[in-house]
Amino acid sequence: MAAFRRVVRSVSPLVSSHRPVLSQLLRTMSLDVQPEPWPPVPAWGRKRWLRAWVSKERHLNRGKVPIEVPRSQKPNWDYDAELLAFTSRLGEKDARQLLRLAFSKQSYSGNEGGGEQCLEGTQLLEEGKRLAVAFLNRVIVEWMPALPDSALEALTEALLGDEALAKVACDLGMAELIVDAEFPFSKSTLRSTVFSVLGAIARSGGSDRAELFVRDFVLPPLSWMDLFEVWSVEDPMAVLVQEMAKCGDAPPETRLTRHTGIHTLLPIYFVGIYR
Amino acid sequence: MSMNVQDSPQVWMDPSSCERTITGGEGGTDLAGPISGSDISCISFHPRGMTGRATASRFLQSVLHNGLGRYVCQLSRISLVFSKGSQTSRGVRDYVENHVVDFAKKHQGTVVYICPRRCHVPKVTAEYLNGGTKVVALNSKSAEEIAQVITLMANQSGLDVIRIRKPFHTKHPSIQGLWQPFVNKRSEIGPRIAEWKGAQSIEDQ
Q1: Do A266 and A149 have their domain in common?
Q2: Alpha-carbon gap, residue B146 to A2, rounded angstroms
Q3: Is A203 within the bounds of a domain?
Q4: Structure letter (DSSP) for residue A47
Q5: Is pTM beyond 0.80 here?
Q6: Is A89's CB within 8 Å of B73's CB?
Q7: Coil, strand or helix: which one is B75?
Q8: Is A54 inside any structural domain?
Q9: Which parts of the sequence belong to the Ribosomal protein/NADH dehydrogenase domain (chain B) (predicted)?
């Protein structure tokens, strides 16, 4: 590189007119003294190719999304230690073997021809699902006894939906432990994993432990959830009449309590509903 | 390095012990502790301006509804990368020999990876449950200082440590709802309110 630079300088002295006078003088006298390069070259060399390379890489990679790699393919990953840490995180150290089963998905164990494993995994999933739905229904009815059935169903569905449970799975570190052919995992996979884990906990530690899990990790969003965001009421009056009939009350009476701006584009009517 | 490290099941020792790399997949990625560039959430701290908008900021939030449900330590794993012989790693070696097992016993939900390999700057890499990663250089730190750093990591949530816009946050900023002409007006037909004696006097004010 240095030789190349020397050649270039000797060929075209006019290119770098800012060079110190002494070295120019030495070169014109063709003495055997190497002039100091100007500006000085750092010890690691002047990487003139770097800027061009970076810009070319940027140009080639524009619009590309970086490939996601599962955590297990990155360095420092020991599945047994991670699984043990997961069980101690939840306080379920006895459930290790069952959890290993719960994390290996059907598509993976199917390749190995583990038919029994598949069956048992499915059983865990079903068990966990049944347990979660039953517990949520019981607790919500206990807290809000006057809630109509459709609202209860909507709340349970929202709490056990793909979005909510996928978040739980990611926040507890379940997503890293899943052994599956597909990656990145879909939300439904994460959801079913939560159910399988729940089933495993129920089978090893009893349904009480599993219910504690649901109470601590699945139920909290209920505290800020807006009922009418998850429950779309088609005909509110009909629901009200139905619920009052259940209690043995007469149908409600409606009265127009206030109105304003009737002749404008934005009229307002307030209707009071009385028992 | 020392046998007592391997007693605790969460502490995982690099079997090849020196200069070897730990690889999960095929092809040897030469990485024991540091994480590839795509993992580290980059927050730019360039002094682009003097206003609050120029720096990264976020709202106050918690992870995993911690506080409503049960507490879960968010630190999922730490990797200690240090050299067996270098002077800068002296404190880390002390920490690994005397303190790391206690840490692993206390924080059982955290996996500790010990990676001795030739390096000038020993590092600890913390990975959190929410995917966040934090790397701290430990060169020339004593074992106590390293213990402080690692305890701090264990107590953090893994969310970005950046400016928090307000010390409070709510998902429902307004309970009252949109304004309409009858906001804060007295109800006139309601049977209960008509009987209420104080209503008239309040309206007079």
Answers
A1: no
A2: 46
A3: yes
A4: -
A5: no
A6: yes
A7: strand
A8: no
A9: 84-157
- CB-defined contacts A:B, below 8 A: 105
* Residues 103-132, chain B, touching A (beta carbon < 8 A): 108-111, 113, 115, 129-131
Q: In terms of C-beta density within 10 A (0-12 exposed, 13-18 middle, 19 or more buried), how is residue B131 classed?
A: middle
Residues of A in contact with B33 (CB under 8 A): 75-76
pLDDT for residue B188 is more than 70: no
Q: Inspect the interface and report whether the beta carbons of B9 and A84 lie closer than 8 Å.
A: yes
Question: Do both A223 and A256 map to the same domain?
Answer: no
> b/e string for A230-240 if b means 16 or more Cβ within 10 A?
bbeeeeeeebe
Among residues B63, B76, B78, the alpha carbon closest in space to that of B129 is found at: B76
Given the structure tokens 């404008």, which residue do they identify? A264
Same domain, A250 and A203: no
Residue A41, chain B, CB below 8 Å: the answer is no
* Cα–Cα dist A261/A163, whole Å: 43
Instruction: For A55-95, write each residue's pLDDT tens digit.
Output: 999 999 998 888 889 999 999 999 999 999 999 999 998 89
- Give this complex's ipTM: 0.72
Q: In chain B, pLDDT over 90 holds for what percent of residues?
A: 48
What pLDDT score does A158 carry?
A: 96
Per-residue pLDDT of chain A (275 residues; tens, 9 = 90+): 455 555 444 444 444 455 566 666 656 666 566 777 777 888 888 888 999 999 999 999 998 888 889 999 999 999 999 999 999 999 998 899 999 999 988 655 555 555 677 788 889 999 999 999 999 999 999 999 989 999 999 999 999 999 999 999 999 999 999 998 888 899 999 999 999 999 999 999 999 999 999 999 999 999 888 899 999 998 999 999 999 999 898 899 998 888 888 999 999 998 889 88
Q: Which residues in chain B have Cβ-Cβ distances shorter than 8 Å to A268?
A: 180-182
Which amino acid is it at B184? N
Provide the shortest C-alpha distance from residue A92 to chain B (in Å). Answer: 11
Domain that holds residue A268: 236-274
Inter-residue contact A273 to A254 (CB < 8 Å): yes
Total domains present in chain A: 2
Q: Is residue A157 part of a domain?
A: yes
Same domain, A225 and A269: no
How much is the mean pLDDT over chain A?
Answer: 86
**Domain CATH for A164:** 1.10.1520.10
Asked if residue A90 belongs to a domain, the reply is yes
